[in-house]
Amino acid sequence: MWARLSRCRRIQLLSWLKRLFKLQTKLSVADDDRPYSSRLDIDLCFNLPSDGISNTAVPSLIFHFEGADMELPLENYTVSDVSAGLTCLAMEGSSGNL
After folding, report:
1. Residue 90 burial (CB < 10 Å; 0-12/13-18/19+)?
2. Are the CB atoms for 95 and 7 separated by under 8 Å?
3. Quick check: 46 and 88 in contact, CB under 8 A?
4. Alpha carbon 60 to chain centroid distance?
5. Is the Cα torsion angle 83, 89, 90, 93 positive or negative in sign?
6. Are 47 and 86 in contact (CB under 8 A)?
7. Is pTM, for the whole model, over 0.90?
């Protein structure tokens, strides 16, 4: 299905996912000028609490298919750097067909 969507539609879906993720994450959004996020070309990062990340601070990501739901493990869609105090949504758009 993803490959059949136009590039414009994929960008819209990714933008929608990021907005929802931001609304449901119980962490403050990190500044855009943080070197970690620009170095990895990741545009949605959150400040970690002093005790690190917990699964309750970041929403679950569940794909709903006909007849089945697939909940992804946290490490499949986020990247965290405790020393930098950041966790980021590790999902970006693709310019080609998958």
Report:
1. middle
2. yes
3. yes
4. 10
5. negative
6. yes
7. no
> For the chain, how big is the Rg over CA atoms in Å?
14
CA distance linking residue 98 with residue 81, whole number of Å: 29
Residue linked to tokens 């750097």:
81
Distance CA 86, CA 28 (A): 10
Q: Look at residue 32 and give its three-state secondary structure.
A: coil
Give dist(CA 3, CA 34) in Å, integer. 33
* Structure letter (DSSP) for residue 74: G
Query: Hey, what are 27's tokens?
Result: 């962490």
Could you tell me how far CA 15 lies from the centroid of its own chain? Answer: 10
Report the 10 Å Cβ neighbour count for 87.
Answer: 24
Tell me the per-residue pLDDT of 71-85, one tens digit each, with 9 for 90 and over: 999 888 888 888 888
